[in-house]
Amino acid sequence: MVGSREAGKVVALSGTPGTGKSLVGRRVSEALGMELVELSDLVIGNRLYAGYDEVRRTFVVDEDRLRDYLRRLVAERGRVLVVGHYSEIVDDSMLDKIVVLRLNPAELYERLTERGWPPDKVVENVEAELLGVCTGNALSEHPPEKVCEVDVSGKSVEEASREVVDVIVGSRPCKTYVDWLSDESLVSFVLGLGGAPGYPMRSDGEALS
Ligand SMILES: Nc1ncnc2c1ncn2[C@@H]1O[C@H](COP(=O)(O)OP(=O)(O)OP(=O)(O)O)[C@@H](O)[C@H]1O
Ligand SMILES: [Mg+2]
User: Fold this and answer.
1) Residue 83 bridge partners (DSSP)
2) Is the pTM of this model over 0.85?
3) pLDDT band, residue 183 (cuts 50/70/90)
4) What are 4-53's pLDDT values in tens digits?
5) Among 59, 78, 102, 107, which residue's CB has the most CB atoms within a 10 Å radius?
6) Of 123, 136, 117, 118, nearest in space to 15 by CA
7) By the 8 A CB rule, do 15 and 103 touch?
8) Angle value at C-alpha 141, between 20 and 182, nearest 5 degrees
9) Residue 159 burial (CB count, 10 A)
């Protein structure tokens, strides 16, 4: 179909690290027959980074080159599911919807700690989830009607994937509705993490006294 190769062929899947994007993304791409594009693999595999941030222990993405690369990739491959916590980077002209996975910050804390992440990185991401940074980033690049949240708290990967598919195909409403900040005990819990041993860290990994 000519139409399907025109604008609006990308679905983006975003969410704070640890919310389940990769596991959910794999299932959703299979269910909808969309090619899966993991931004982190794309960036590292094609050296689309400007450098390495020693403090945050992460690659710094070269956004202009990544945008160009995605434009070419979508023109070549057609309908794709772009997965990553900065997947709002997809041009709005190519985007159908951006689905943001949201996870209760207390549950995210458990998950990232179990993953063995250093305390400062856990806290940074739990704070980002509390504030809704990924949703904010999506709304800063795309109109609100294209930004859809799915609260995956307490849900299995299967349940979460089913909800995401429903939102993409339109059988569930696409809307933003998650507000962890209105839960005072959750806010206190996250603020309490700020004083965890080893946080904040210096660039050499030593805790500041
Ligand atoms: N619904 C779920 N229930 C329980 N555990 C889950 C669920 N979804 C993901 N996990 C676990 O959380 C961890 C992170 O999942 P995943 O790698 O899919 O997240 P991600 O959002 O892709 O993270 P990153 O941004 O770091 O790539 C994994 O250990 C996974 O097993
Ligand atoms: Mg992932």
Assistant:
1) 13, 38
2) yes
3) very high
4) 444 558 999 999 999 999 999 999 999 999 999 999 999 999 999 999 99
5) 102
6) 136
7) yes
8) 60
9) 12
Q: Domain limits of the chain?
A: 3-104+142-178
Cis-peptide, bond into residue 118, ω within 30° of zero: no
Q: Which ligand is nearest to the CA of 109?
A: 1
Which residues have CB under 6 Å of ligand 1?
A: 15, 17-23, 85, 111, 115, 152, 155-157, 160
11 CA distance to ligand 2 middle (Å): 16
Domain 3-104+142-178 CATH superfamily: P-loop containing nucleotide triphosphate hydrolases (3.40.50.300)
Tokens of 113: 């700690």
| Structure-block tokens of residue 23 | 């596991």
